[in-house]
Amino acid sequence: MRLDGSREMLDGVVADVLTGVDDLEDPHVVPPAWATVVELDWPLVGIPEGFGGAGGTVADVVALTEAVARQAASVPLHETQLARSLVGMAAVDLPASAVIIPVDGRALTITAGDGTRVDGEVTGVGWASIADHLVVGIDDQLLWLPADTAGVQIEPGVDVANEPFDTVTFSSAQAQVVGDRRAVEALRNGAALGRAAGLVGAAQGAAKLTIEHVAAREQFGRPLAKFQLVRAGIADMAAELELARGALSDAVDAHLDDRDMELRTGVALSSAARTATLVLRTSHQLHGAIGVTREHALHRFTRRLWAWRDRAGSQRSWEGRLGELAANGGPDEVWRWFTSTGDGAA
Amino acid sequence: MSQIRQESPEQLAQLRTQVRALIDGWRDRFTPRADAWLRGYDRGFSQALGEAGMLGITWPEEVGGGGRSNRARLVVTEELLRAGAPVAAHWIADRQIGPAILREGTPELRQEFLPRIAAGDATFCLCMSETEAGSDLAAVRTRAVRDGDDWRITGTKIWTSQAHRSEYAYVLARTDASGPKHEGLTEFILDMGSDGVEVRPIIDLQGEHHFNEVVFDDVLVPGRWVIGEVGGGWTQVTEQLAFERGGAERVLSTYLVLEELVKVAGRDGRDLEAVGRLIARLLSLRQMLWSIASAMDAGDAPIRQAAIVKRLGTTFEQELAETARYLLGTVPTPLATSVSGLLGDALLASPGFGIRGGTTEILGTIIAREELPA
Ligand SMILES: Cc1cc2nc3c(=O)[nH]c(=O)nc-3n(C[C@H](O)[C@H](O)[C@H](O)COP(=O)(O)OP(=O)(O)OC[C@H]3O[C@@H](n4cnc5c(N)ncnc54)[C@H](O)[C@@H]3O)c2cc1C
User: Fold this and answer.
1) Residue A99 contacts by C-beta under 8 Å, 6 or more apart in sequence?
2) DSSP, res B3
3) Residue B75, SS3 per DSSP
4) Is residue A344 situated within a structural domain?
5) Distance separating alpha carbons of residues B161 and B164, to the nearest angstrom
6) What confidence tens digit (pLDDT) does each residue in B132-186 have?
7) Pairwise CA distance, residues B114 & B96, whole Å
8) Residue A322: which of B276, B289, B365 has the nearest Cβ?
């Protein structure tokens, strides 16, 4: 399925189907909106039809992730799309409703012998508590296992956005090898790309609320939007968002073309996280007290921004990696990156 | 002018190789420095670029241009900026006076000036600002009055970069003072060798002479040297400024310092994250530069994006110099051919980045207006 049409149309559809989706009361049950999302085949977007998918590319996946975040909706959509696309044929018979969750297994160990077995603990896994299946990247192997496999234990937790933030413990849990080092890299890059898209979407949502607020709210006999310092804050957010959206689209091109993926993903994540920080601060400041109430919608965006910046590898670790790539590559390589940025947009 | 310009990646790569080769042939004749597009002046280098077809590269071939895309121009300019090459002699004319003449000028005016600008032969300075007309450019008081078919210009301009070396000036002057300030402005070309032109140096904080005060006392300007409409100057100059903002010189003025930083990143406890953050910023900005050039090639006027790139790009240029200062642990020194000299050069040039060509604050008001229309 290609998501044709404008961003406004996509937003319209997302708003229609996800309206009323507020914070998850109990984040450790399948969210009510999931059924709707499944009906639309969205978990299958970005997966080739030959693999039981709905077609479309990573560009569609990112557009959808951004749009869902612009509505501050909580569904394990990007996670499932990514995990499903990585396991390929192994997931071909799973129903569209299956929740499949990617796990960065850097901290885990594999023992071969009686099949492939996994040991260790990973903290901060989003949505593991409602997962039907887990896809785990460890060193140069991508593993797949049902979440109820013997030896898998999931301890539910929440992040500041009240989304599942769980601890998964593996004790000699049996898993199936479904991919190699490239698949593990694709899992890490894909997860960060999804986070960047989510951050951009949620930041757009917060900025939109802020623009509406300063246009409507009056003080000193005038709308806040008439005051230059207020307008400066709006300009800052608009400029940063434009930059982050550009970096995101460049990363999408890199994923489509399979070139400089780690670099471009890191740039998109760093940009999105930096933008998120600015939008957080500015939108709360310009909302005044109403923005810190539970009743006002702003926190639905800002709590996600707080939660998401460091969720697919920290912002710091990605920036450190960019610095390392630059130091290893040297000035000529950095210049090559510079001059090849945006080519996909040609 | 709004035809869609396509160029293959191979054509652009070939152009890049040509620019690099030309620069390499000149390396022993210039010292790379920060902000070279304002300060590095070598007429011979500009003429060599002209001869190689690198100037006026987007203009039609009939007026001496290259008939190529805005992306091709980005390729040329970014390579020149990376090298810190002496490009100030032609920069203003190539970037904005030529395009203004192309958009607004009569066919005769185009033929008279564009081939010579594209050859690197006709150099221009920009006489817009006055003491009482900075951000509020429409407040210019310099007057132009009719003298038969010609004009006489009287007034004082300030901050005119490279006026002392330019053959011609672009002058924004008031031709009608009776109405509102945005009406009655007109754009002229003026011969800097004319009677009644006086150029007084202004020394900048580094002790360099690049800008000037320029006094016009009843200077004769031929009638054919009006650019566009008499009285249409405000609309035209606004468009000129909007177009000139979105180029690579708003991102790369301190790039030489980044290369030094990359060479030592991670060594001796220097943190890699700070370098990574700069890289992320740099590449995000290139994405915007590319998308602005592409939009112009498609016949669009990406004015909002250009304002954003200038506001964020010049801030990045400053952030880059400050991060380098912090991480290199080098004490900046004046104009020397060393890392500390490059750093000193970059730091002392940096306050101008957010001022010239529309201040950071004025750009903020432009961006905010897009989000919150009155
Ligand atoms: C290195 C350099 C080279 C230059 N070269 C040239 C040249 O070749 N030709 C030329 O014509 N000019 C040139 N200029 C001048 C430049 O265009 C002006 O400096 C610029 O337009 C700002 O005007 P100003 O300096 O009078 O500052 P002002 O307009 O007095 O501004 C001072 C401060 O007030 C702020 N401010 C002003 N108005 C507002 C407002 N409405 N809202 C919020 N903040 C506001 C500004 O942003 C700035 O921070 C050059 C300047 C520099 C620094």
Assistant:
1) A30, A34, A76, A79, A80, A127, A130, A131, A132, A133
2) P
3) helix
4) no
5) 8
6) 999 999 999 999 999 999 999 999 999 999 999 999 999 999 999 999 999 999 9
7) 12
8) B276
Q: Point out the domain boundary residue: A179, A214, A230.
A: A179
Q: Do residue A17 and residue A151 come from a single domain?
A: yes
Does B1 reach chain A within 8 Å, measured CB to CB?
Answer: no
Contacts of A345 in chain B (CB under 8 A): 287, 290-291, 294
CA–CA separation, A212 and A204 (whole Å): 12
Q: Are residues A198 and A154 in the same domain?
A: no
pLDDT at position B242: 85
Q: DSSP readout, B231-248?
A: TBHHHHHHHHHHHHTTSG
pLDDT confidence of residue A229: 97
Tell me whether strands A165-179 and B143-147 are parallel, antiparallel or unpaired.
Answer: unpaired
- In single-letter form, the type of residue at position B324 comes to A
Contact A137, A187 (CB under 8 A): yes
| Test the B interface: residue of A209, A227, A245, A270 with most B CBs within 10 Å | A270
The residue whose CB lies within 8 Å of the most ligand 1 atoms, and thus the one to mutate among B315, B356, B367, is: B356
Same domain, A175 and A188: no
* ipTM reported for the complex, 2 dp: 0.95
Which of B73, B97, B122 is the endpoint of a domain?
Answer: B122
pLDDT class of A113 with cuts at 50, 70, 90 = confident
Boundaries of domain holding B140? 126-235
First to last CA, chain B: 32
CA A298 to chain CA centroid, nearest Å: 19
Does B358 lie in the same domain as B263? yes
pLDDT digit string, tens, across residues A51-106: 889 999 999 999 999 999 999 988 999 999 999 999 988 888 899 999 999 999 99
Task: Name the residue facing A231 among B75, B279, B365 (closest C-beta).
Answer: B365
Contact A122, A99 (CB under 8 A): no
What mean pLDDT value characterizes chain A?
93
**What is the CA(B357)–ligand 1 centre distance, in A?**
8
DSSP β-ladder status, A100-104 and A133-138 = parallel
| Overall number of domains in chain B | 3
Give the span between the Cα atoms of B118 and B63, in whole angstroms: 8
Residues B76 and B155 in one domain: no
Q: How many CA atoms lie within 13 A of B191 on its CB side?
A: 11
Among residues B78, B79, B104, B244, the one annotated as catalytic is B244
Q: Give B1's pLDDT tier (boundaries 50, 70, 90).
A: very low
Atom of ligand 1 nearest to the CA of B359: 47
Q: Is the dihedral of CA A188, A190, A193, A195 positive or negative?
A: negative
Ligand 1 pocket by Cβ (under 6 Å): B 126-129, 134-135, 159-161, 211, 352, 355-356, 359, 361-362, 365
Contact B272 A247 (CB under 8 A): no
How many beta-carbon pairs under 8 angstroms link A with B? Answer: 158
The residue among B106, B122, B138 that closes a domain is B122
Residue B136 CA to ligand 1 center (angstroms) comes to 8
CATH of the domain at B151: 2.40.110.10
B244 is catalytic: yes
Could you tell me if B191 and B268 lie in one domain? no
Residue B126 has pLDDT above 70, yes or no: yes
**8 Å CB contact of B279 and A235:** no
Q: What is the pTM of this model?
A: 0.95
Q: What is the pLDDT of residues B17-73, one digit of tens each?
A: 999 999 999 999 999 999 999 999 999 999 999 999 999 999 999 999 999 999 999
Q: Which atom of ligand 1 is nearest to the CA of B133?
A: 26
